[in-house]
């Protein structure tokens, strides 16, 4: 039965997320959901997505009306394989197997705690033949140097059209590059010769010729996959990944031909007639689909999800350049034009090129080159006029583009002859404005996403029976268009306790407020705090330190600090002012220098303020990062920023805003904002336990080549599990090709955390350590045990060389970048915006067959489609059962110090993520492709030798090391400076 929503149901929430960090250009559609403040979710319930229209029903009764429910009138049907007797027999077999060393534990059992129910999940059953044999082939090209990128796909297309290959076309699938899967044996050797030509080009006997060799590599038997899915322990190590990747190629055959592939398993269809959404000049958003085959217990499935990605807007390159000139004196940014793909037609057919550089100082009218055909030196303008009878209209007002990677042999083209090729994913990182526009189109309620998947998605991806060009039937595959019905449980929330007010109270819908309560432990302001006005000339600003409105503003904030329970918060602050006119990076650098001088002049280092309140009006991220680096690394001064356009608002909103800031101030000062009830904390307090969070952040698009990754390790210091100071470290992003995501200095960073724990606990070390590891992809789980586990164990040895120290260790991976989405079955089991209820945990049906994993949605998504976090236990000396680790992780999600609500990611991992982000502030000039010294290392265009590239990367890394200097100031190292 096909699942479709009814006509016109609820339309989800609206609005942009709090905070303004740039987001990646590719997004899912859903809920960000990590709380950031007193009663407010950071992202407003958004996960790299935004609002958008629906497909075929499920739209809505309007804002404020009841939300729609996907497939509400379709009865749920949980298959027998997911019933208790069968699943209990599965885990009973696991318990008979002894796991040793760094091997991942088997699932110990299934969770039973909470209220049971059923949800739908965006997984669809795939029927595969039980005893089929598929044939795997590699594809090679000669000459290989000329068969790269789009050209490979075109060569394979020409092979498929050749008469000698025609008998095999209906029974093959390929990845448009180097791998081919066939449902029947192909003759060997199989070599074909292709005379290359473009789609609209006549065959040229003198054109490029390619010899293509299709060589057999192995047989893939579906019986191996079925044995693996049976769940017998002896089949756990059966290598089914080659067959799974082959199935992905088979099932994605139609999508690969019709659409544009972006990253792995994401396909977009810009030519399908969907309306694009403009994000900014030259950049637009398109909706597409993620698709990936997954083996589950006794069932092969395909995970299908809606996703969004930014694309370059197609059209005339000259028009885009002129538009950029009108917008900015600098014209089209290099970050936009570099590696942009364009096409020309002046040769009589479409030829594709890559822009290596826009030659800003060269125009077609002025630039000459030596041309023997026309007797020597000739301008580019005259060459195109004489050779191709083209009169250039922008010969003197638009720069030439260079489409050659060889600096010694440039190839210049006039921009007006070039078209931006459609279907190019945007290479850059979205800025704040682009992100906000992406949110508007991507944030959609669950019912809209569900209907888009089963209607538009199945059609576009070619998953329906008898789809033209699909390879499914040739391989004996069929796909159900009914979403999986899987068991879920709603876990009970903890009770929250403050120092005054009710002894403890429950959280309603995973949130609460601080009305009439005080922090459990107030941090001490010691009567010393400072305020710095950053004057950028905007209307939201105060006139100066003596502005009466500023005096009232600070009194109100101080009143909130007092009411919240912060100690010694009655003394007025010392206020200073700095003029920081808005401008380029050079002006920003001068402003940071002025701020440095002002702070050193106004605040005695021997009696520095406990924190500095920075009042800023523009939200300039470069200025923000510069202040954080100055305060954290040079001055050893806690800073808290307020954005005045948000802080100077209506009185009731200002109270809420000040409450958010008070949460951060108290945490920075070492306070404890709230606790959970003893029953909820027992899983941590029954033995001396330290909770750690680990994360690594990599440089993104636009960063200078050689910019290092930043690793963060945070850890609790006592039995309140409220304070998590951090260690930060630089590491080369390509230090070790195999383990580039692993923490290089993990031993030293862990020793720092253990030493602080000792200092806070009368010399005692924890008996147990529970680690929540963020930032690790599914394919790297084994690397954590193979590479990071020994580094942790080395720290245990070094912290206590005389007396062996062997704490019981558990490592849990936190996965956010998955595509599992869940849908409530009816309104009784849904939030008011159509999402699944907070506390939902799913560990059956769509989880791993053998591994100890589960999906947990601790928080309430406020808008869009809520996204659960995927937790996987990869090492477990504590032998936790499912209830303990699931409910413990759930209750811990209510213990985040910057929110009065449950957050989507367990706080230890969330803190590590925040600490990494703070580390990025210290390297901001490199991450944005700039340099304090004006160096252009890592950004120059044109071909370079490997040695030159290595030398440039090393120079950038040395610059990063200089910027990092001694790291965090010693006076902040024992605090949550990053929160």
Shape descriptor reads globular
The assigned structural class equals: alpha+beta
Strand fraction band?
Answer: 15-25%
Arithmetic mean pLDDT: 90
Helix percent reads: 25-40%
Q: What's the CATH class of the domain at 679-821 and 867-964, please? A: Alpha Beta
Distance between the ends: 49 Å
* Uncertain residue ranges: 4-26, 29-63, 932-942
Radius of gyration: 30 Å
- Please give the number of β-strands: 40
CATH topology of the domain at 679-821 and 867-964: Nucleotidyltransferase, domain 5
> Which CATH architecture of the domain at 679-821 and 867-964?
2-Layer Sandwich
Q: Specify the number of helices.
A: 22
The fourth-level CATH homologous superfamily of the domain at 679-821 and 867-964 is Ribonuclease H-like superfamily/Ribonuclease H
- Largest pleated sheet: 17 strands, mixed
């Amino acid at each position: 039965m096909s699942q479709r929503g009814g006509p016109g149901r609820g339309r989800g929430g609206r609005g942009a997320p709090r905070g303004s960090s740039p987001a990646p250009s590719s997004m899912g559609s859903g809920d960000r959901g990590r709380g950031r403040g007193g009663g407010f979710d950071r992202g407003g319930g958004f996960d790299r997505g935004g609002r958008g229209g629906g497909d075929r029903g499920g739209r809505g009764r309007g804002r404020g009306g009841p939300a729609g429910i996907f497939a509400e009138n379709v009865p749920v049907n949980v298959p027998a394989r997911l019933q208790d007797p069968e699943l209990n027999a599965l885990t009973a077999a696991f318990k008979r197997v002894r796991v040793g060393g760094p091997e991942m534990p088997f699932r110990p059992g299934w969770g039973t705690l909470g209220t049971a129910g059923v949800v739908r999940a965006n997984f669809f059953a795939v029927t595969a033949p039980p005893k089929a044999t598929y044939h795997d082939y590699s594809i090679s090209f000669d000459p290989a140097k000329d068969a790269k990128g789009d050209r490979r796909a075109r060569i394979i297309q020409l092979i498929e059209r050749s008469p000698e290959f025609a008998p095999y076309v209906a029974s093959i699938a390929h990845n448009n590059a180097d791998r081919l899967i066939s449902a029947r044996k192909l003759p060997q050797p199989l070599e074909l010769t292709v005379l290359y030509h473009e789609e609209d080009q006549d065959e040229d006997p003198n054109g490029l010729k390619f010899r293509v060799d299709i060589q057999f590599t192995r047989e893939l038997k579906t019986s191996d996959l079925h044995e693996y899915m049976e769940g017998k322990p002896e089949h756990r190590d059966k290598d089914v990944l080659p067959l799974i990747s082959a199935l992905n190629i088979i099932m994605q055959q139609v999508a690969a031909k019709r659409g544009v592939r972006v990253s792995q398993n994401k396909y977009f269809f810009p030519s399908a007639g969907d309306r694009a959404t403009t994000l900014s000049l030259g950049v637009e958003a398109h909706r597409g689909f993620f698709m990936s085959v997954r083996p589950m217990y006794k069932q092969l499935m395909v995970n299908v999800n809606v996703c969004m990605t930014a694309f370059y807007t197609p059209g005339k390159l000259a028009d885009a350049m002129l538009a950029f000139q009108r917008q900015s004196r600098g014209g089209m940014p290099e970050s936009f034009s570099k590696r942009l793909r364009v096409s020309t037609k002046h040769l009589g057919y479409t030829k594709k090129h890559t822009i290596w550089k826009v030659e800003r100082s060269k125009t077609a009218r002025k630039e000459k080159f030596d041309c023997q055909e026309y007797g020597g030196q000739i301008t580019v303008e005259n060459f195109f006029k004489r050779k191709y009878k083209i009169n250039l209209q922008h010969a003197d007002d638009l720069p030439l583009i260079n489409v050659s990677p060889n600096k010694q042999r440039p190839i210049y083209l006039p921009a007006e002859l070039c078209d931006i090729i459609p279907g190019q994913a945007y290479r850059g990182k979205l800025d704040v404005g682009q992100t906000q526009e992406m949110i508007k189109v991507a944030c959609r309620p669950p019912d809209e996403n569900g209907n888009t998947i089963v209607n538009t998605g199945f059609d576009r991806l070619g998953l329906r029976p008898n789809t033209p060009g699909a390879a499914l039937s040739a391989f004996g595959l069929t796909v159900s268009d009914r979403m999986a019905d899987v068991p879920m449980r709603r876990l009970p929330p903890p009770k929250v306790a403050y120092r005054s007010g009710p002894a403890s109270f429950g959280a309603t819908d995973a949130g609460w407020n601080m009305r009439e309560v005080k922090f459990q432990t107030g941090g001490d302001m010691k009567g010393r705090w400072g305020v710095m006005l950053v004057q950028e000339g905007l209307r939201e600003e105060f006139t100066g330190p003596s502005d009466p409105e500023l005096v009232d503003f600070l009194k109100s904030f101080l009143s909130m600090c007092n009411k919240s329970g912060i100690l010694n918060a009655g003394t007025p602050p010392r206020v200073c002012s700095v003029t920081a006119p808005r401008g380029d990076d050079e002006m920003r650098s001068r402003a940071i220098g002025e701020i440095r001088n002002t702070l050193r002049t106004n605040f005695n280092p021997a009696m520095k303020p406990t924190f500095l309140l920075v009042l800023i009006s523009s939200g300039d991220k470069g200025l923000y990062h510069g202040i954080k680096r100055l305060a954290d690394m040079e001055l050893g001064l806690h800073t808290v920023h307020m954005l005045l356009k948000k802080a100077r608002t209506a009185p009731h909103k200002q109270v809420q805003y000040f409450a958010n800031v008070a949460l951060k101030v108290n945490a920075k000062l070492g306070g404890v904002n709230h606790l959970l009830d003893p029953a909820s904390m027992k899983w941590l307090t029954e033995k001396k336990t330290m909770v750690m969070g680990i994360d690594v952040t990599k440089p993104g698009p636009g960063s200078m080549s050689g910019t290092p990754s930043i690793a963060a390790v945070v850890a609790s210091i006592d039995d309140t599990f409220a304070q998590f100071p951090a260690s930060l470290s630089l590491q080369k992003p390509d230090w070790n090709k195999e383990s580039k995501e692993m923490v290089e200095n993990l031993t030293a960073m862990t020793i720092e955390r253990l030493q602080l724990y000792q200092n806070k606990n009368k010399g005692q070390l924890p008996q147990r350590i529970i680690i929540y590891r963020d930032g690790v992809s599914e394919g790297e789980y084994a690397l954590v045990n193979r590479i990071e586990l020994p580094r942790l164990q080395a720290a245990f040895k070094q912290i206590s060389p005389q007396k062996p120290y062997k704490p019981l260790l558990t490592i849990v991976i936190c996965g956010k970048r998955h595509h599992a989405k869940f849908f409530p079955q009816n309104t009784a089991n849904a939030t008011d915006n159509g999402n699944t209820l907070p506390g939902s945990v799913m560990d059956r049906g769509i989880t791993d067959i053998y591994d100890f994993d589960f999906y947990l949605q601790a928080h309430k998504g406020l808008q869009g489609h809520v996204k659960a976090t995927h937790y996987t236990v990869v090492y477990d000396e504590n032998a936790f059962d499912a209830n303990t680790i699931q409910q413990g992780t759930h209750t811990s999600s209510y213990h985040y110090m910057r929110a009065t609500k449950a957050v989507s990611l367990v706080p230890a991992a969330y803190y590590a993520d925040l600490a990494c982000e703070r580390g990025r502030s210290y390297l901001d000039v490199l991450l944005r492709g700039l340099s304090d010294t004006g160096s252009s290392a890592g950004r120059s265009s044109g071909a370079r030798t490997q040695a030159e590239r290595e030398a440039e990367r090393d120079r950038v890394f040395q610059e990063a090391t200089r910027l990092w200097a001694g790291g965090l100031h010693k006076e902040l190292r024992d605090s949550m400076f990053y929160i």
